[in-house]
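Researcher: Let's run the pair from yesterday's discussion. Sequence first, then C-alpha cells, for each.
Model: Starting with the first of the pair.
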Amino acid sequence: MMRQQECVAMLLAGGQGSRLGALTKKIAKPAVAFGGKYRIIDFSLSNCTNSNINTVGVLTQYKPLLLNSYISTGAAWDLDDAYGGVFLLPPYATETGGQWYQGTADAIFQNIDFIDNYDPQYVLVISGDHLYKMDYSLMLDFHKKNDADLTISVMEVPWEDASRFGILTADDTGRISKFSEKPKNPDSNLASMGIYIFSWPVLKEALLKDSLNSSSDHDFGKNVIPMLLGEGKKLYAYTFTGYWKDVGTIDSYYNTNMELLNPDSPFNIFEENMRVFSNSNIYPPHYIGPDAVVENSLVCNGCRVRGEIHHSILSFDVHIEDGARVTDSILLPGAKIGKNARIFRSIIGEQSVIGEDTVLGSPDSQEITVIGDNETIAASQIKGGVSHE
C-alpha cells in the first residue's frame, strides 16, 4: 500500500467530445487547446494543485496519445509528488478479459485497486473537459461538516437549460431529496456540475453493487446517485457561484475563447491566487515583425507574426506570414498561415497549413469555419467554399 492520502482525485478524461467535430477527430476533448497557452485538462489539474490534492488518477480512453505525452509526470502542475502524483489509468486487460470503460461509474469501478492503494477517506471525482477554477478543499470541508456520504457541486442554471443537466432538489441545509438526470419537466434549476466528493467506503460499496446490475448504464447521474438517494444515504449540494463552462460545441468553444479578449472577461486567466498551469513552456519568446499589426489578441510563446492579427488567439508556435490577415479567429498550436491569406472567424487546427492567398470565412458571416488538425489547405481547394461547423 502507498502512503495514505486523505483525498484522492479521479479525473475522467476519456471523452471523445464528438460535438466538437474536426477538433476531436484525432485527440480527446480534454487535450484540445484553449486560450492559446492551455489545453482544456489544464484547468482541472490546476484546480487539484491549488486545492492541495496531490494524488490524481487520470482515466483516459479515446485517442489518448497526445494527452498521455502532455501530462507526462505531472511536473508542470507540481503533481510529481513522491507520495502521490499523476497516474494515467487507461482500460486494461484482466484475467476475465477486461473491457473499455462502460460509463463514468464503471471507469472508477475498474480502478478500485488504484484507490485502495492510498486507503483514502474521500474520493473526488471530476471531469477533464470543463473550464472553471475551484478550490476543492472548501467543498471537502463542507462534505466533512455535514458528515455526508456524497456531496455534489451544483450551480443555478437558466430554467430553459435545466433539462440538459442532472437536476436536484435540496432543502435549506443543502440535503438533497430528489435527483433527476436530464428531466423533461424539471422542478428545480439547481444543476449538477459533475463534480463529486464521496466518502470512499460508501462509493466502493455502491460501485460493487452497480457492477452486478446488468441493466445499469454504470453512470453516476443515471444510476449511482439515484441508488444512494433511494438507500437513504446523506447526499448534499455544495453551491458553486464562480465561472464554469462545458465547451462541448463549436459555438461554445469559440465564444468562450473569445471572451478571454474582453477587458472584463468573466474568466480571468491572469489572477495569481488561482493560477492555471500548463505544459507548454518549451518554446522561445514570440516574435512580432517590423511591419506586423497586432490588435487585441493573445499571442503565445514561439509565435512569429509578420502579418496582421485582429481580435484573435494565437496558440504557441503559430506563424503568420507577410501580408496575411487573421481576424476574429483561433489558431491552435503549430498552425501556419501563408502570405496574403485572409482568415475570418475561423478555428485552425494544430499543425495545419493555410496556403498563400487562401481566404477562409467571411467578415459578413456569423458562421465559424473549422479546419481540423494536420490539414493543408490551398486557395485552389476552396473555390466552392469551405464547410462550416
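Model: Moving on to the second of the pair.
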Amino acid sequence: MDARSWSSSTKMKARSPFVRQNNSQENLDRFIPNRSAMDFDYAHYMLTEGNRKGKENPVTTSPSREAYRKQLAEAFNMNHTRILAFKNKAPTPVELIPKSILSPPPPRSKSSKPRRYIPQSSERTLDAPDILDDFYLNLLDWSSSNVLSIALANTVYLWNAADGSTSELVTVDEEDGPVTSLSWAPDGRHLAIGFNNSRVQLWDSYSSRLLRTLIDGHQARVGSLAWNNHILTTGGMDGRIVNNDVRIRFPVVETYRGHQQEVCGLKWSPSGQQLASGGNDNLVHIWDRSAVSSNSPTRWLHRFEEHRAAVKALAWCPFQANLLASGGGEDDHCIKFWNTHTGACLNSVNTGSQVCGLLWNKHERELLSSHGFSQNQLTLWKYPSMVKMAELNGHTSRVLFMAQSPDGVTVASAAGDETLRFWNVFGTPESSKPAPKANTEPFAHVSRIR
C-alpha cells in the first residue's frame, strides 16, 4: 500500500442479538371448588328468606323450611346470620416482612451519574505504513483545529478529522530524515517538525508553507517538542533542552542541561510556568521558568530518580495544579504521581507493562495509559484510586504514540503494527464549551528565515 495514503479498514458487521422467543401460553380451565357453589346456595337463601324476619310485615316461616336452614348451616359450619358484615375498623395486619425490604429503592438523585459505557474496540482503523517503531520518538499530535498529524518515515501527513480528508505536508530527503517528532502550536495552524539531522522546521499548515528552520539548538536528532505560547521547546539525543522564541531572528533564548542521555519526553504545565522533561537516563526534571535566572539557566527545580527505565510518558493533570504523572519503560512498568510544588512522590502503580504514553481525561478524574509488551493495550484508570476501568485491545505491537482530540472525547493511538486507531474512551462531556478562538498573534512576525 502506498505510504502516502491511508485507507479505512473494513468493519465487521455486528452480529444481530438473539431474538427472544415468545413462549406460547397454555389455555387452562379454571378450577372452581364445589363448596363455592354451595356457598352461593346459602347466600341466596339468606338474602331471600333469612332477612325477612326483621321486616315490618314478616312472613311466617314453615317448620320444614327452618329445619332445612339449620341442617344446611351445620353441614357447612356457617352458623352466622350474615355473609358480609361491616365493622368499624379493619384488624391491623401482622407485618411478617418489613416494608423497607419489600419497598423499591429510592429514586436515583439527579447529582449521581450513570455508569459510562466504554467501547472495547476502536471506532476506526487507518493504515500507517512505515511508521517508525521507536520508543524515544513522538510522531503523532492532534491540533486544536481538529487536524491530526502523523509522521511516516520521511513524510508528514495531515488527516482532517472533520471531513476525513488526507494531505501530504512535507517529504524530506533520505539524508535529512526520518522525521523524529511533531508538535502543533496552540493556534492549531503551525506545526513544528523535528528531524534526524538535528534540525527543526516550522510549517504553516493552512498554506503548506515552510516558515523557518531552526539549526543551532542541537547536535543530534530532535525526538521531543513542546509549545508554551510562542516558545518552542526542543529535546535532543544530545541531552539538551532548548527554548526557542519563534518570533525573533536568533531564537535560542534558554538551554537546560540536566539529562545525560536522550530527552524523549517534554510537557509544559497548563500554567506555562513549569516544564517536565523525561530522558533515557531514567530521570525526570522539573524546570520552573520563574526560578530560572540569567546566572543559572541550567538549574532544575526538582530531579526525580525513582524510575528504573527511560521516561517518555508525561502528563500534567488538568484539574489539579502541580500534579504530574510519569511512566517508565520496559524495566520499570510504573506510573508515578508527583507534587511538583513540594517534589513529593504521591503514588506509584506497577502496570506490569512498558508505559509508552499517558493522557488525562479533560472532563473526569481518569487517566489513560498506553503500553508495550506484553499485551500492547490501552488502560483506563480511575484517579486517585487507580482502579482499572477498562482495557482496550486491538494493536498487535506496542502502542508508542497517543493524541487526544480537541474536545477531549476521542483518542488516537499509533503502534508498530502500522495502524492508527481511534477510541471513544473518554465519553461525551455533559456540557460542551465553545472552543477558544485561535490566536495567531505569536506568529505575526514569523518570516521565511532559513
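Researcher: Give me one sentence on the second I can quote.
Model: The helical segments are 34-48, 63-75, 99-102.
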